[in-house]
Each structure stands twice: as structure tokens, then as C-alpha cells.
Amino acid sequence: MIEVENLSKSFGSHLVLDQIGFEVDEGESIAIIGRSGTGKSVLIKHLIGLMSPDSGIVKVGGQNLVGMSERELLLVRQKFGMLFQGAALFDSLNVAENIAFPLRRTGCSDESEINRRVDEVLNLVELAGTNLKMPSELSGGMQKRVGLARAIVHRPQIILYDEPTTGLDPIVSDSIDQLMMRVRDKYQITSIVVTHDMRCARRLGQRVIYLREGQVYLDASAGEVFNSQDALVKQFIRGEANLKEVNF
Ligand SMILES: Nc1ncnc2c1ncn2[C@@H]1O[C@H](COP(=O)(O)OP(=O)(O)OP(=O)(O)O)[C@@H](O)[C@H]1O
Ligand SMILES: [Mg+2]
């Protein structure tokens, strides 16, 4: 479904991604972990063609995104659902219109179909009946759930989550984890989650990619990563700081 080969990206003289390579099969569920600033968000922006690499290949469904026109990229992006940090809802649109947005963008204009699909995903995230509420009336966790509903309403083949639970309390984070698992299991959707939350990584990632200093340090099953005896992996997973190494 996704193939990344020798992907490198620098900003000025700062090499952020250094010869990254991995593949994601259809229906797989991957967690990407790594320290702040290692390039996780930059990497997933490459997967949807929001950034293009200095060198390397990014293929989605067999098509190389590198060198595609903006028009071609728009078609590729329709295969994706995205939930980024902060739900990024449109403040001036109500819940139903926020969720309908990706459907309308892909050309759907059948209002009864739109209403049906909006209700279906609102049900899935347990927010049935909130159609007419404005984002400002919702808690952070509810906004996240609306963001999740919006990310799946057009039935994407792949869903990307960038820090879906950052900034939420542990109980709300747990509910978002459960909803992400529900989405994965109901739609058999290929899922990639970037997270600092090891519980979320463990629950959602059947496979875990640990990025370190711009490279794939470890790409293995969740069991192998969480039981790894490698000192750096253990230190990261347990969140132990070596003060000499931390750049505050
Ligand atoms: N558009 C840009 N222009 C210049 N530098 C950038 C740009 N986007 C990202 N960077 C730099 O690339 C590096 C990696 O950023 P990125 O946002 O991918 O980190 P991250 O692993 O997602 O971190 P976090 O866990 O804090 O979200 C950072 O040093 C950042 O400053
Ligand atoms: Mg990030």
C-alpha cells in the first residue's frame, strides 16, 4: 500500500530524514515513535505529498508521488483520512458540515447520502445527535472525535494520525484509542499513528517503527519492540532521560 525507499529530506543544512525506508501492507496498523524533532511529522507529510523529498521514492498504491502534479496529488490524497494534532475543525461550520466537507470535496452532492454518511460516522464515534453543534461548544475530546469522524467519512484506504491523543486527559485519550481501534477493525483500514503515548502505540500498532536521528532505528512487531533489550529502545519506551543528551 505504501512504499518508502531511501527517502531523505533536509531543511537548509539540517538533515531531518536520512535514507528512510519501509513498507506498509494493506490493512496493516503501524505506530511511528521517536523523540520530538526526529522528523515523524515531516515523514507523514511526505506520504500525502504535502512535502516532497530531496531524494528517494514514496509510492502509494504503486504510484510514485515524487514529481506528481498538484492535481494528481489531490487524487492520491483522497485515499487518505487524516487526523492531526488539534482537531483542526472549521470554526464557522457545524459538526455535520465539518464532517461532510471531505465528501463534498470529492464531488458528492447527494444530500440524503451525505446525511446518512455523517450520521453513520457520528454514531461510530458516539456523538450521535450533535450534528448542529458548533466546534466551540465541544470539549477537546469531542472535537477530536468529530475530527476522527471527518477523517473516515469518505471511506479512505489509509488513515494517518499525528499525535491523536496529545493534550487530552488519560481517560479521554483512552476513549480515542478505543475509537481508533474500532475504526481499524470495522473498516480494515490501513492505519499509521505517530504518537508519544506508548500505550496508544502498543494498542494500535501491530508493528512499530522507531525513528532515531532521522533513520529507522527499529522496525519490528509491537511485541519485539516493547520487549526489546536494546538499551536505546528501552530507554525511549520507558521515557528515561539522560540529561547529558537532552536538548531542552
Ligand atoms: N517546513 C519546515 N521548514 C524547516 N524546518 C522544518 C519544517 N518542518 C519541520 N522542520 C524541522 O524538521 C525537524 C523535524 O520536525 P517534525 O515536525 O517532523 O518532528 P516530529 O518528530 O514530528 O516532532 P514532534 O514529536 O515534536 O511532533 C524539526 O527540527 C523541525 O524544526
Ligand atoms: Mg510531530
CA distance, first residue to last residue: 37 Å
CATH class of the largest domain: Alpha Beta
| Structure classification | alpha/beta
Q: Report the radius of gyration as a whole number of Å.
A: 18 Å
H-E order: EEEHEEHEHHHEHEHEEHH
**Shape annotation:** globular
The total count of strands amounts to 10
Q: In oligomeric terms, what are we looking at? A: single chain
Count of all domains: 2
**Shape-level CATH architecture of the largest domain:** 3-Layer(aba) Sandwich
pLDDT under 50 segments (min length 5)? Answer: none
> Strand fraction band?
15-25%
Number of helices: 9
Helix content: 25-40%
Across the major sheet, the strand order is 6-7-8-3-9-10
Bound molecules: adenosine-5'-triphosphate, magnesium ion
Would you mind describing this structure in some detail?
The chain is an alpha/beta fold and 248 residues long. The chain folds into 2 domains: 162 residues, 3-Layer(aba) Sandwich (Rossmann fold); 70 residues, no CATH class. Helix content is 37%, strand content 25%. The protein is built from 9 helices and 10 strands. The protein has a 6-stranded mixed sheet, with helices on both faces. β7, α6 and β8 form a beta-alpha-beta unit. α3 crosses α4, α3 runs parallel beside α5 and α5 packs parallel to α6. The radius of gyration is 18 Å and the shape is globular. 35% of the residues are buried. The model has no long low-confidence stretch (mean pLDDT 92).
What's the structural blueprint in terms of helices and strands?
Layout: E1 2-11, E2 14-24, E3 29-33, H1 40-47, E4 55-60, E5 63-64, H2 70-77, E6 80-83, H3 95-105, H4 111-124, H5 140-152, E7 158-162, H6 170-187, E8 190-194, H7 198-204, E9 207-212, E10 215-221, H8 222-226, H9 231-238
Parallel strand pairs: 3-8, 3-9, 6-7, 7-8
Antiparallel strand pairs: 1-2, 1-4, 4-5, 9-10
Helix pairs in contact: 3-4, 3-5, 4-5, 5-6
The protein binds adenosine-5'-triphosphate (ATP) and magnesium ion.
Adenosine-5'-triphosphate binds next to helix 1.
